[in-house]
Amino acid sequence: MDSAHLKVGKEFWVTVLNQVAYPGCKLNAGAAIYGHIASAASQASPNPAEISLVFDHAECEGRGKKEACLSGFHPHPQHVGCCHSPE
To answer: I want to staple 40 with a disulfide (CB 3.0 to 4.6 A). Which of 3, 13, 35, 79 is the partner?
Structure first.
């Protein structure tokens, strides 16, 4: 994701690589976690760019795409793969 080209509210999804369970939601490999851009700021060097993501829906096992409370969810490279943005 490039913070210079993202707009607040833009939706995206990530793909789960390895099964992981959260309270009330088991995410199997290949499941999608959906979210949107909460804020994005691109700054000139040496200041780093910033991006805030909200993950609010997921394909929990046996429930399809449902609203999911993933507070405290921190994508980890071991569990989450590529980001996708609907065009």
So the answer is: 3
